[in-house]
Amino acid sequence: MLQAMFFPKPAPARLRVPSTVMLAMCEEAPSRRFSLVMRAAGAACLPARAKTVDELLREYAEYTPDVLIVDAGFSELGGYEAVRRLIENFPAARVLMAGGATAAVDVACAVGVGAGGYVTLPVSGECLAEAVRSVFQGRRYIGPEVLEALRARGVDIRFHGLTVRELEVLRQLATGRPVKTIAERLDLSIKTVYNHFRSIRAKLGVETATEAVTAGSRLGYLRPAPEVDTVLRALGARVRLAPT
């Protein structure tokens, strides 16, 4: 069995263990089990009452949990769309996705929309606790069973630390366009563009737009990446790269 793979991201400076975890699951059985595992790990568990994406956003804003676990099948729009909108509204949110599939597109979509990790259902209590801790500490977590399935199919896993929307903003910054123009081209508010830029700077460990573009070029973020294209196709182009 392969060991879980971790992808470095900036970690919170203080707390290393989450104190509150919110669950947005489709079925009651895994939700109950997740609650038991989290309580045993010392975290208060908050099963979400939300049934729609808008309700989940409001509930997240009300409780601001340290980590949110989202079922890939959540709501009529799907868990990926829920996570995309959550990260768009709360860029600092720490999200772990749980699903029954191990296809590359499922994992790529989870990471592409901003989730900090992906585990398959059913998942062992040990793996779940480790995944939640890792996501809270700012590290990517892909469950060992997912890695094993993907590697068996010859899939080379290489995930970007930036979300699809952050990649869009970074690529627009690389053209030298002003923030107002970027906002118009991506159909975002100026404030949202600045929020994404702050997140980009934190993830790349830089201070200025020039440094972000330089780091992005060095890391390969400014050239098309197969996993990003996969995410865009899987999301039905709801989130698409703007023309350069």
Topology (SSEs and partners):
Layout lengths: L4 E3 L12 E5 L3 H13 L3 E4 L5 H11 L3 E5 L7 H11 L5 E5 L4 H9 L4 E4 L4 H12 L3 E3 L1 H9 L11 H11 L4 H8 L3 H15 L4 H11 L6 H9 L10
Parallel strand pairs: 2-3, 2-4, 4-5, 5-6, 6-7
Antiparallel strand pairs: 1-7
Account of the protein in words:
This protein folds into 2 domains: 148 residues, Response regulator (Rossmann fold); 71 residues, Winged helix-like DNA-binding domain superfamily/Winged helix DNA-binding domain (Arc Repressor Mutant, subunit A), CATH 1.10.10.10. Helix content is 49%, strand content 12%. It has 11 helices and 7 strands. β4, α3 and β5 form a beta-alpha-beta unit. It is globular and about 50 Å long. The protein starts with a strand and ends in a 10-residue tail after the last helix.
Defining traits:
Rossmann fold; alpha/beta; 2 domains; 244 residues; disordered N terminus; 7 strands; 11 helices; Arc Repressor Mutant, subunit A; seven-stranded mixed sheet
